[in-house]
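FORM 12-B: Structure-to-Sequence Request
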């Protein structure tokens, strides 16, 4: 497959859209045209050179989503340095440890991170710099301080008239070089440093630019954590490389904040995780269509199409009115929610990926998307199922191709365990492939439980059914003494209180338990539901940290 370097896309787009807006903080004053972006990248290259940074050196970024984060990442990549992306949610000790582990020489931090970290606890640092205004917050020596004060002067010497469009040249001869280290915050334990090459990034960006090309005037909103691969690749890199107008949501993505932002930006695409879309559908759509009369009309020929169109139109307006793609990933989508969107012929699809594949493995356009699937292997990637009958009997999903990582940084053992003898990467997920190549996931192999007679039990499938029942927001199914118990976080909103109507919540949940057991096999019956008081702790991509509750 012919693979175009993502930095070639960026270079060409910068020249073509020089005066157009590239990125902006939605609730702030920071913004860059493509020309301003190129000049700021050049100024940062001057910074790196003066501070003694060489190609291959590590530069760590730890802060919230913002335009300056985006500029920094592009500057690091076009300098041939290695970006170390650290989630701002990590503790101070976590940040200190990851900076040291990665051997980063520079650390750029956002406001919340600046308050909690101590540069003296990271002895390998040359400098720590504030992401919001690029001010120096720590220098390893007086010489570094003196050099940093001359950056603007030196940049003017190099570029007295600033950088012009014709002078923008980015490296494209480094496909196999290390581009970034991504420290995961997974649902199963300690973070690992995923090593991704420029080829891995190019595989994702080249696919997106060819498969989903932008139209004039397309706008996009970055709301997923940009330090997570899903957000980095498809809410940021693909957008600026192919010429979209990008807006960074700098606030926490609550439902009310999102609705306001959608109305402001009118995005052509929304990338989200199931939890967000489930809250919107369960809050705005299902209460309407689950009324007794509506349930009948929703399935009545001649009427249902009108209803589906009306509800779909209302949902489209809630998303800003110009949506052409709703792409969901990161975890399984609730079946009731997906069924509702399918009935409406809404433009959604569910993709599959992981950090180790930068991140995309499978995808299909919503017009061809197979219900309950995760799409098909994208060009440059292959999927196989470790099973004697991959179409009927689930097995581990294994992948091979241009998007697959180089390995885990300084962790040869974990790298070795992740790859088969013939070079395929073990995902740890279980699934099947239908005759058309559509991937259907069943759950995580690490989460799989064994029934009393050795039956495979997939807690995610039980949780999906429980999450469709009244008053249930989130569920984790655990095994205790060979019996299954469901931990349930209930809906405590006014809507939930209305459903409860003054009844005892434990009696209500017991009814839910009996209801779900009607459709579960004997070996996967729930013996008890325990109500938890706090929302389950989650990773930045909103997956539940299951290891905390097992």
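FORM 12-B RESPONSE
SEQUENCE OUT:
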């Amino acid at each position: 497959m012919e693979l175009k370097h993502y930095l070639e896309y960026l270079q060409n787009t910068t020249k073509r859209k020089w005066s157009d807006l590239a990125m902006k903080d939605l609730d702030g004053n920071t913004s860059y045209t493509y020309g301003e972006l190129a000049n700021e990248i050049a100024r940062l290259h001057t910074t790196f050179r003066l501070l003694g940074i060489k190609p291959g050196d590590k530069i760590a970024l730890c802060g919230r989503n913002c335009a300056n984060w985006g500029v920094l990442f592009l500057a690091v990549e076009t300098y041939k340095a290695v970006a170390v992306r650290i989630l701002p949610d990590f503790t101070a000790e976590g940040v200190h440890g990851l900076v040291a582990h990665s051997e980063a020489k520079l650390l750029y931090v956002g406001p919340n991170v600046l308050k909690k970290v101590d540069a003296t606890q990271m002895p390998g640092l040359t400098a720590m710099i504030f992401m919001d205004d690029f001010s120096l917050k720590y220098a390893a020596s007086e010489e570094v301080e003196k050099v940093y004060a001359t950056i603007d002067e030196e940049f003017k010497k190099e570029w007295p008239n600033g950088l012009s469009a014709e002078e923008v040249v980015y490296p494209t001869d480094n496909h196999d070089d290390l581009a970034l280290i991504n420290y995961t915050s997974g649902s199963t334990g300690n973070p690992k440093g995923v090593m991704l090459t420029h080829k891995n990034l190019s595989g994702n960006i080249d696919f997106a630019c060819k498969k989903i090309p932008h139209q004039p005037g397309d706008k996009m909103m970055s709301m997923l954590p940009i330090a997570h691969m899903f957000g980095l690749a498809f809410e940021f890199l693909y957008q600026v490389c192919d010429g979209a107008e990008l807006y960074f949501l700098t606030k926490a993505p609550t439902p009310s904040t999102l609705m306001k932002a959608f109305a402001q930006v009118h995005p052509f695409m929304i990338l989200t995780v199931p939890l967000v879309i489930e809250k919107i559908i369960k809050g705005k759509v299902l209460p309407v269509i689950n009324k007794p009369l509506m349930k009948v009309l929703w399935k009545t020929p001649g009427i249902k199409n009108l209803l589906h169109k009306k509800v779909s139109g209302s949902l489209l307006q809630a998303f800003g009115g110009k949506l052409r793609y709703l792409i969901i990933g990161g975890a399984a989508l609730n079946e009731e929610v997906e069924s509702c969107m399918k009935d409406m012929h809404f433009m959604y699809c569910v993709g599959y990926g992981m950090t180790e594949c930068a991140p995309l493995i499978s995808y299909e356009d919503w017009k061809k998307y197979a219900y309950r699937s995760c799409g098909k292997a994208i060009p440059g990637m292959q999927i196989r199922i470790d099973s004697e009958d991959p179409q009927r009997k689930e097995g581990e999903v294994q992948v091979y191709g241009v998007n697959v990582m180089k390995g885990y940084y300084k962790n040869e053992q974990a790298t070795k365990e992740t790859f088969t003898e013939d070079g395929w990467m073990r995902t740890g997920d279980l699934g099947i492939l239908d005759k058309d190549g559509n991937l259907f996931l069943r759950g995580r192999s690490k989460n799989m439980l064994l029934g009393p007679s050795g039956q495979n039990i997939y807690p995610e499938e039980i949780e999906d059914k429980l999450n469709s029942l009244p008053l249930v927001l989130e569920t984790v199914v655990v095994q205790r003494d060979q019996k299954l118990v469901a931990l349930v976080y209930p809906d405590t909103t006014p809507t939930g209180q209305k459903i409860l109507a003054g009844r005892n919540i434990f009696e209500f949940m017991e009814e839910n338990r009996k209801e779900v057991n009607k459709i579960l096999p004997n070996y996967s019956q729930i013996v008890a539901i325990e109500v938890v008081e706090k929302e389950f702790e989650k990773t930045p991509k909103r997956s539940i940290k299951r290891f905390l509750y097992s």
